[in-house]
Amino acid sequence: MQERLQKIIAARGYTSRRKAEELILAGRVKVNGIVINKLGEKINDDAKIEINNRELIKSEKKYYFLFNKPRLVLTTLKDPKQRPTVADYFKNEKVRLFPVGRLDYDVSGALLMTNDGEFANFVMHPKYEIQKTYLALCNGNVSKHQINNLMKGVVIDDDYKTKAINAKLVKYNVEDDESIIELTIAEGRKHHVKKMLIAADIYLKKLKRTTIEHLQIADVPLGKYRSLTAHEVKQLYGLFAQYKSKK
Fold it and tell me: What is the dihedral of CA 124, 127, 132, 136, to 10 degrees?
């Protein structure tokens, strides 16, 4: 049976399909000893695949973790500048794990880690509209007008209009002149929430992602992680099935 190369890489648990495409275009993938550097190539699912000259062995068991990422940790597996990465927190796991999507270096909170490339692909893909909730510590007293602007929609990246599914003021601290606001989005452009707050004239001081769909990090200490239950994984895959059934 033949499948697209990036799909087979994801199925073998190396990375997401999107990241696999980047590796292919960078000329870092070989199939049966031949470099493949363009997308769309179909290969046999039992073909020998090498990434960075190391053979890719299929991982039979799938792992899913919810990680409470600290600030100043990169959502990547390696960093040439030797800064802390999410991989540093999973050294005791015997399987190669990769992050599902990204969380900015200076943002803390909920991040999924897995070796299931197809799972990562649909959770990351904007068309499936996976909801993510954030708490933002902001300077000053955020007004109802500013909150309403987030709900009505703001323009980021010059001409892209985006809006929060929900947004509310959680708390205003008079003494420190700081507000905490909560907002939920179903998109994920680079620095998406930060850009939304700038567009609403809100000065962000610190950002934390608290929830990915039904998964909350309230019970996961900072810098720690837990396995997803079978039910939680099924719930996420259920969102994928719901989307497919509407088509």
Answer: 100
